[in-house]
Design a protein that fits this description.
23% strand, eight-stranded mixed beta sheet, five-stranded parallel beta sheet, elongated, Rossmann fold, alpha/beta, 405 residues
């Protein structure tokens, strides 16, 4: 069974005060390697064992420590953190953190965040064997596990083994690879697009003029790759048909490399049937009629004349009625003016279900953020504020999930 991809997932890691805190550094490294975005809350006790600098360097984000921090709490930092995450992981989960969470105590950033979150929580307990076996600790864990719905806390470990204090028995924090597996299981447990197939196109096409020149465009492929990753994260089986870009394939996604529009159409057709088609690639409208076999040399008579012929219309083709038409077809409209009129006209002309319109005159190509408007066939639309392309992808996939639900 393939591992659940973590690309586009957000993990908030709370590091408690115990010697096992050093393992949290390896957990962050593994999560980042798997594609997850990680932010850390470091308790005062945890800071006795690992430094904020280490966590910040590995996570790529500043570490949050104080509840009453002017920088964080001007925007209600504990609320923002608790809402930002897809999953909150407590590792190590000390007896104190477990007790606070079980009894609704909130006297520091970690415990306040646990009380404020509306996301699943995974705890990796770590403590002395006598503490672990104490009835109060077991009662607190039982209470946490018994909370209804999202408030119910999942646990991983502890393991049996030798303690830092020299005693032997249960209480060792689970190894980072085991915690990572538990994270995957929790995130994979609610994957609403599981069993559905998706095709995503991304990037530019390249139409050769001769062996060294060609017609192309400035598409980076970042938005399409983010959409493919977000679909896979929700359980879809994704084929990503990609033009020439400098991006790694998202985890859990099958990528097919193409160069020309004709090749892209053939790859899309080969990936059918599917349930979802997101045609985000910037496909060249024309190609040269007769590619030169050798490099075209500069001649005294001026530039050569290039005869252009129309490329296949991939979006219109996949949107056409028929047994192989996907249940949901989403196109993209990259415009430099009159976005609303042009996007609605394209939606009608192509026959797709939705169009994502964006104004590419606003420094979008190659950027990590995007401003888009989603247009639906029923005439409604939704404009989204400028946000990262990963967040655009998540928002679009959330709409896809709601559509199929």
């Amino acid at each position: 069974m393939a591992e659940a991809p973590l690309t586009t997932h957000r993990i908030l890691l709370i590091v408690g005060g115990g010697i096992a805190a050093y393992k949290a550094l390896e957990l962050v490294r593994l999560l980042r390697k798997a594609g997850a975005e990680v932010r850390a809350v470091l308790t005062d006790g945890g800071a006795q064992f690992v430094t904020p600098l280490s966590l910040a360097a590995l996570s790529g984000h500043p570490v949050h420590q104080a509840l009453f921090s002017p920088d964080d709490e001007t925007t209600m930092g504990h609320i923002e953190l608790s809402r930002w995450a897809d999953l909150v992981v407590v590792a190590p989960a000390t007896a104190g953190l477990i007790a606070k969470a079980a009894n609704g105590l909130a006297d520091d950033l970690a415990s306040t965040t646990l009380l404020a979150t509306d996301k699943r929580v995974l705890m990796a307990p770590a403590m002395n064997v006598r503490m672990w076996q104490h009835p109060a600790v077991q009662a607190n864990l039982a209470r946490l596990r018994g909370f209804d719905g999202l408030h119910g806390v999942a646990t991983v470990g502890p393991d049996d083994g030798e303690m830092a204090c020299g005693e032997f028995g249960p209480g060792r924090m689970a190894e980072p690879v085991a915690i990572l597996a538990a994270i995957r299981d929790l995130l994979a447990g609610d994957r609403p697009l599981a069993g559905r197939r998706a095709v995503v196109t991304a990037g530019p096409t390249f139409e050769p003029i001769d062996p060294v020149r060609g017609l192309t465009n400035r598409s980076s492929g970042k938005q399409g790759y983010a959409i493919a990753a977000a679909l896979a994260a929700q359980g879809a089986t994704v084929t990503l048909v990609s033009g020439p870009v400098g991006l790694d394939a998202p985890e859990g996604v099958h990528r097919v490399w193409v160069e020309t529009a004709v090749e892209m159409k053939a790859a899309v057709d080969a990936a059918l049937p599917c349930d979802i088609a997101v045609m985000s690639a910037a496909v060249a409208d024309w190609r040269v009629d007769g590619v030169a076999s050798g490099k075209i040399k500069k001649a005294p008579g001026g530039p050569p004349s290039l005869a252009l012929i129309e490329n296949p219309d991939i979006l219109a083709g996949i949107s056409a009625p028929g047994p192989r038409r996907p249940a949901l077809v989403i196109g993209f409209a990259a415009e430099t003016g009159d976005l609303v009129d042009n996007a609605r006209a394209k939606l009608s002309r192509k026959g797709c279900d939705w169009i994502v319109g964006n104004d590419v005159s606003d420094d979008v190509f190659g950027a990590d953020s995007n401003t888009v408007t989603l247009f639906l066939r029923d005439g409604t639309s939704q404009a989204w504020a400028r946000q990262s392309k990963a967040d655009v992808a998540r928002a679009l996939v959330d709409r896809i999930v709601a559509h199929f639900a």
